[in-house]
């Protein structure tokens, strides 16, 4: 299964990891909840699980667990910095609906 990170996301993740002692990666998870049924969760972590997918790009490391990867196959982690604020977002081809804030989604 394929999960990628954009150059913008890689640059931001690398910057965050460099400023956080002990953090080795950004963990991207999909959890039940949110207004559309599923939601993305982003956390810094020191722990890599044996079955994690590891995505590395330009000094950034991202971990994705196998259950989350089922919902993230073919998706891309991106980072946007605009007048509305800076945030990570997931461009997910599996999402059939999303909430207005972009952190919650559903699949068929």
| CA distance, first residue to last residue | 18 Å
The number of helical runs is 2
CATH-derived topology: Hypothetical Protein Aq_1857, Chain: A
Largest sheet: 6 strands, mixed
- Describe the strand arrangement of the main beta sheet, using strand numbers: 4-5-2-3-9-8
Q: Helix and strand succession?
A: EHEEEEHEEEE
General form: globular
CATH structural class: Mainly Beta
> How big a fraction of the residues is strand?
over 45%
Write down the domain tally: 1
Report Rg: 13 Å
Named CATH architecture: Sandwich
Task: Count every beta strand, where a strand is a DSSP E run of 2 or more residues.
Answer: 9
Tell me what the structure shows.
The protein is of the alpha+beta class and 108 residues long. It has a single domain (3-106), classed as HesB-like domain (Hypothetical Protein Aq_1857, Chain: A). Helix content is 19%, strand content 45%. It contains 2 helices and 9 strands. The protein has helices at residues 7-19, 66-72; strands spanning 3-5, 25-32, 38-45, 53-57, 60-64, 75-82, 85-91, 97-98, 104-106. A 6-stranded mixed sheet has the order 4-5-2-3-9-8. Strand 4 and strand 5 (60-64) form a beta hairpin.
